[in-house]
Amino acid sequence: MPDFYFVTSNRGKYEEVRLIFEERGLELGLIEESYPEIQSESLRDIARFSAKYCAEKFNRDVLVEDSGLFIRALRGFPGPYSSYILKTISLEGILKLMEGVKDRSAYFQACVGFCSPGKEPEIFSGYVEGRISEEIRGEGGFGYDPIFLYGDRTFAEMSKEEKNKVSHRRKAFESFLNSRNTSSKGRII
Ligand code: IMP
């Protein structure tokens, strides 16, 4: 039986998080479902609502994660609307908005929500700094990875393992795992 369950309809996300848990000897189960997301400018609030909703719906301890890309020159856009913007204007649309823009700094933020049925959610966050590339580069990853430069490569040009060492998701889930007192072998002590 898995040690924890992660609710997501995004296989790319699940695969990244599964590897983080595996490093600690923990098994991560997948509940491959989508769930309603509240509209909010705060990823924390979105993760809080989703974690509570899923804990009650599936009647078990669950993990959810909400993330977004924040571009400084666009005052944090697309931020909490990252998913919708990717579906509508896509990566090309973002690059167009960034044409001729000097400050290309951006960051990904991830908020993890953990909740047990009948309890209040706990939230853990992580972020990673980077820059928006001039063009789409790389075959790996998902979402905004092909336009997010970490050093001189995009996340989509890095292996899953390389991205996983530095990502916003890694930091948020690591903070969750540290709060759980997992031993080096991974079992909860
Ligand atoms: P959500 O957290 O699933 O709502 O994701 C928000 C949006 O950000 C989606 O379009 C994802 O594809 C994108 N996103 C989240 N994390 C990453 C990442 O690690 N790399 C690239 N895009 C991401």
Keywords:
single chain, 189 residues, alpha+beta, Maf protein, five-stranded antiparallel beta sheet, 6 helices, 33% helix, binds inosinic acid
Describe the structure.
Helix 1 (11-23) packs across helix 6. The chain has a single domain (4-179), classed as Maf protein (Alpha-Beta Complex). The chain has six helices and seven strands; from the N terminus they run E-H-E-H-E-H-H-E-E-E-E-H-H. The strands form two sheets. Strands 3-4-5-6-7 form a five-stranded antiparallel β-sheet. Strands 1-2 form a two-stranded parallel sheet. The longest helix is centred in the N-terminal third of the chain and has 16 residues, at 43-58. With 189 residues, it is α+β, with helices and mostly antiparallel strands. It has helices spanning 11-23, 43-58, 82-88, 90-97, 160-166, 168-179, and strands spanning 4-7, 28-31, 62-71, 105-115, 122-132, 148-150, 153-154. Residues 10, 66-69, 82-83, 86, 108, 141-145, 155, 167, 169 line the site of inosinic acid (IMP).
Topology:
Layout: E1 4-7, H1 11-23, E2 28-31, H2 43-58, E3 62-71, H3 82-88, H4 90-97, E4 105-115, E5 122-132, E6 148-150, E7 153-154, H5 160-166, H6 168-179
Parallel strand pairs: 1-2
Antiparallel strand pairs: 3-4, 4-5, 5-6, 6-7
Helix pairs in contact: 1-6
The chain binds inosinic acid (IMP).
The site of inosinic acid has 17 residues, from strand 3 and helix 3.
